[in-house]
Write a structure and sequence with these properties.
Mean pLDDT: 91
Structural class: mainly alpha
Number of strands: 0
CATH topology of one domain: Helix Hairpins
Radius of gyration: 22 Å
Distance between the termini: 78 Å
Bound molecules: adenosine-5'-triphosphate
Helix content: over 70%
């Protein structure tokens, strides 16, 4: 055993530090646990996930060119990822500072604003997609 190393191989580091750099399957499992927690706790995340599924259903039904799949899936992913970041920030702030504070209001409002910006982008992209479908079906030939 090297000097300073403990018998459990942690070198006496706090447990939190030892949770870094774990095998891929463990890191994947933590990511999935995060998504499951957001699903359980955040109504907004559930709504956005159902809407993303709706978009996928529309894509499967209409079979548009690949560029529309890429654009719409990317927008759905951005909204869901932004909501996960928003949830992470809310949980951290509520844990570290449960009391009301103007700085926490600004931080939470900005995070919610980020989700709103991505949501507008997603809605705009979806409307453009619908418009392109209408033009494609109404054009002669
Ligand atoms: N500790 C606090 N201090 C000041 N304002 C707060 C605090 N906690 C929440 N707020 C205000 O309440 C709003 C909603 O709070 P919070 O984000 O925790 O709820 P939420 O329903 O989970 O929101 P979201 O739908 O964005 O996930 C915040 O955007 C902020 O304006």
């Amino acid at each position: 055993m090297a000097a300073g190393e403990s018998s459990d191989g942690t070198m006496g580091l706090p447990a939190k530090v030892c949770m870094k750099n774990q095998p891929f399957h463990k890191r994947l499992s933590y990511s999935l646990q995060g998504i499951r927690s957001a699903w359980k706790q955040e109504a907004s995340f559930r709504t956005q996930a159902w809407m993303a599924l709706g978009v996928v259903a529309v894509l499967i039904a209409l079979r548009p060119p690949a560029i529309w799949w890429a654009l719409l899936l990317m927008n759905c992913g951005l909204v869901l990822a932004a909501e996960l970041f928003n949830t992470a920030l809310e949980q951290t702030l509520d844990h570290l500072h449960p009391e009301i504070h103007p700085a926490i209001k600004v931080a939470k409002d900005c995070a919610a604003g980020a989700v709103l910006v991505f949501s507008f982008s997603a809605v705009g992209t979806f409307l453009a997609f619908l418009w392109s479908m209408v033009v494609r079906t109404s054009s002669p030939g």
